[in-house]
Amino acid sequence: MAADKRRRTVIVGASAAGVATAEALRRLGYAGEIVIVGEEPELPCDRPPLSKQILQGALEPAKAALLSPQRYERVAATWRLGVSAVGLDTGRREVALDDDTVLGYDDVVIATGVRPRSLPGGDLAGIHVLRTLDDALALHSALTAQRRLVVIGAGFLGLEVAATARRLGAEVTVVDPDTEPLMSRLGRVAATRLLEVHAARGVEFRLGAGIGGFEGDAAGTVRRVVLSDGESLDAPVVLVAIGCVPNVEWLNDPVLDVSNGVGCDEYCRAAQGVWAAGDVARWRHPVLNRSLRIEHRINASEQANAVAANIMGRGIPYAPIPFFWTDQYENKVQVAGIINDAASEKVLELDQGNGFVCTYHSEGRLAAVLAWNAAKAMMPYRQQLRAENQVPST
Ligand SMILES: Cc1cc2nc3c(=O)[nH]c(=O)nc-3n(C[C@H](O)[C@H](O)[C@H](O)COP(=O)(O)OP(=O)(O)OC[C@H]3O[C@@H](n4cnc5c(N)ncnc54)[C@H](O)[C@@H]3O)c2cc1C
């Protein structure tokens, strides 16, 4: 199969997961044609720096490119950028594009990611979301012109932007209906520490407050955010960071399960010859024995590798230990595994600096480990996680 030059794989979505699938296919010796379809007009840059160095103005966007020119060459793909997929027919094995072309395939990889959720009334000028390079550049220039930001949503993205905006000298207020944001994702100790770090840097919080609406001026530019308790916040710039929705609307074939992303089996296969990877993919984790859809960078690459291997006929179930990180001010927080019993939290303070490690257990096994400025101390726990959960190394 690897040497069959007549095969064609169509990858829809030209970002982290899509591009990594193409690279992995070539690494594994795939000799057929690879067509990569992406609706952004250029190859998107890697997204993690968007809320950090690029928003801050500390990194040239070109330095966050997904592929170096050499790697771009090596992928040897046909790139269809600035074009959207608008339909998938699994019976005829065809992808329809919005430029009226139809691509036949032997295998198709759905890597269309997610897009930010919006709020009613959120179309006033000055209300931002953050997913693309253009979004980051627009928010950067808004923050350098108007040094006051209201962030709606105290998740990872909202808090990363709050940290960067403080570094840019903006006053920042973060609003979230949850009184204990990030508790379920980071556990009690790290979630509390993170809010303390932000408060110490001057970020104000309105927790437990919903959004009542936005007030704009005659020109249609946002001026105030009105909270559900009646408080009204001065808001020349607003970031809405309340989560994302999977890009599945183009998948109109009834064979596919597109409730909460693209439903796949443990091989990341959604149907015969149809695979999914990255933020859009929901698959059955064969060891944790649950359905997962993960919106984190490492998963996009690891799942892409698994999909490429399975296109090559290797038949390997995708069984990662989920991993993500977030950078806020000078702090790096990393989590491996899934914190599903925050009550089992055990904290190990390290001797040097402000680093610490937390462990979480479930059914007598290590289920997750969190490291706060303690990447090295985390290593043995990651091995323990694999061993105790019988997850093979990738
Ligand atoms: C600002 C920001 C900061 C982040 N920071 C971190 C971090 O610190 N740590 C971490 O672990 N993760 C982080 N992430 C998450 C990480 O970047 C994502 O998990 C990763 O980008 C997912 O890659 P993907 O290829 O699955 O999806 P995406 O990157 O969303 O790419 C999907 C692509 O498909 C295209 N597309 C959609 N529909 C169609 C269609 N119909 N036809 C053609 N193309 C289509 C889209 O335009 C897009 O280019 C961050 C994300 C953002 C936005």
TrEMBL record:
Domain Reductase C-terminal stretches: 323-392
Annotated TM spans: none
Domain FAD/NAD(P)-binding: 8-304
SUPFAM superfamilies the UniProt entry points to: FAD/NAD(P)-binding domain, FAD/NAD-linked reductases, dimerisation (C-terminal) domain
Stored Pfam families: Pyr_redox_2, Reductase_C
Keywords, comma-separated and alphabetical: FAD, Flavoprotein, Oxidoreductase
Cofactor list: FAD
InterPro entries cross-referenced by the UniProt entry: FAD-oxidoreductase/Apoptosis, FAD/NAD-bd_sf, FAD/NAD-binding_dom, FAD/NAD-linked_Rdtase_dimer_sf, Reductase_C
Protein name: Oxidoreductase
Organism: Amycolatopsis acididurans
Organism taxonomic ancestry: Bacteria, Bacillati, Actinomycetota, Actinomycetes, Pseudonocardiales
